[in-house]
Amino acid sequence: MGALFTKARKRLKTAAKHLNIHKDVIERLKYPKETLAANLVIRMDDGSVKSFKAWRCRYDDTRGPTKGGIRFHPAVNLDEVMTLAFWMTFKCAVTNLPYGGGKGGVSVDVHKLSRTELERLSRAYVQAFSRFIGPDRDIPAPDMYTNGIVMAWMADEYAKMADMPQPGVITGKPIALGGSLGRDDATGRGGYYVLRHLEADLGLVPEKTRVILQGFGNASFHCARLLHADGYKIIGLSDSKSAILDPDGMDPIAVMEHKQKTRGLSGAPSNGRLQEMTNAELLEQECDVLIPGAMESQIILENAPNVKAPVILELANGPVTPAADEILHKNGQIVIPDILANAGGVTVSYFEWVQNKAGYYWSLDEVHQKLRPMMQTEARRVWDVKLEKDIDMRTAAYVHALDRIGSAVEAHGTKAFFAQK
Questions:
Q1: What is the signed CA dihedral for 215, 221, 226, 228, rounded to 10 degrees?
Q2: pLDDT category, 349, cuts 50, 70, 90?
Q3: What pTM does this model have?
Q4: Which domains does the chain have, with CATH numbers?
């Protein structure tokens, strides 16, 4: 087992201490149900052949088909894929979706591929995992460096192999191919709904709340856009190259337009006091809400004592390590965990799957009207568990999810049932 997966499993053990849960449940969740590795060999544009390592993990399907994205990134490995599938299992349970957790990935730098090479790689992934995935077995979606067109290629390849259209096999597809309205901003919107719902409990007043977002991709942009429209002051933003800070606030839409034109944040429109710094420095600036929305393990043992934000909303997967969690909790800082905060994406992916199965599609307002109460309901339940058991929010979220998973496992019968005479 890798270090990331080992750390993730500690969350399970911690949550179990707060529940009277059967040992069978913990035993079932110790390892993934199944994991498949493959070598994707594709023809490059120059005529050469190149191979890429790929994985797909189905962690647990007690509550339904497994669900999880596919990421294309040079750092992807088995440890990361297993960990992400583990997190997805709990994320789906937190939001009460009829899914288990899955995840996939390819170790590749997409910036070094042409568009035709990217298409070949996407189709090769489906060819390798066609018996692993399926609309009622394991449903992939976009993740890091994959998007709607990649999902379209994958869905098309699966349809060719099944000899019939199967739109429900993949979510995150383009609207014209069975995608759902509202999927583009679902992750950021879900985090926005959670923060707005809990703002009174957290002591936040929009007009007086300064927000820093680390990472300025799709999820962070939409979260920033929605918060800014409600009066929150966006004072810090970053991308993979640099970070910017303006204590007087910035308009995230104007900054995004600048980024798209210049491919960077340097010199972005501001209110006049713009400072440039590193990603690491941005995390340690004074603010009221810090939203890490980039990669895993950004707030770690070494820099956690320097993080000043009283509220941290995790839009990324696993941006706070367990060691950092302990420090933040001791300092009285509240971390709204990823398995709640960024669950808007998988929730709208679930909506897409439901629409594909029904052949009936919803308006954008319907999607928002369904997403908002789901995020608010689960945010309130996690907050109530936190107060009831006097624990941090992450542990409360895992307790809430484990309770649901445990009920599903126990419904099949436990040792106590089978030992009866």
A1: 70
A2: very high
A3: 0.92
A4: 32-168 (3.40.50.10860), 186-341 (3.40.50.720)
